[in-house]
Design brief:
five-stranded antiparallel sheet; homodimer; Jelly Rolls; 1 helix; mainly beta
């Protein structure tokens, strides 16, 4: 397991809910103001299960995103820091692809 | 698109909510008593968003399954018929892998 695996960097927020040779599925939850350590995701499908606002820092690039429960999106492999900048809890399922 | 694509066989139940070259994400909903046409899924991750009971008919094999909201599971490529045999609506996200 990489030192940047989110299960290692932020075990209070990320839980493995399924894994086989093709995918790993993570359940992510946090609360307003929470901030992760820097961590790495492979190519993943994200499924938003709550409405929330988030700041993502990817190297020198800082993005603020607002998402809606029910949205699905693609997240290419990356190292980032995530921060809950809204007033609602975050709940996201990550389906990580083992390329 | 295959004639057995669930978007073609059961467009009242399956909606595409995301697609790229690696994955297609489907939102599935039905109500008690609903039954699909025979349709085909590739290797997929299923994420259950409600508690429900289901009968799956895969060729001569008939299985009854009970699932819980929050469960994630792997569904290998298959052709099947699904039927909601419980008293609750079904809501499932399919993350289909384009192998």
């Amino acid at each position: 397991m990489s030192a940047l695996d989110p299960i290692r960097t932020d075990p209070d927020k990320y839980k493995v809910i399924f894994e086989n040779e093709r995918v790993r599925v993570l359940d992510y939850r946090d609360t307003p103001g929470a901030k992760t350590q820097a961590h790495q995701h492979p190519n993943s499908v994200l499924l938003m299960l709550s409405d929330f606002q988030r700041r993502l820092t990817i190297g020198d690039d800082v993005r603020e995103v607002t998402v809606t429960a029910g949205q699905a999106l693609w997240s290419p492999a990356q190292v980032h820091v995530g921060e809950n900048i809204g007033t609602a809890d975050s709940h996201v399922i990550f389906v990580e692809l083992k390329d």
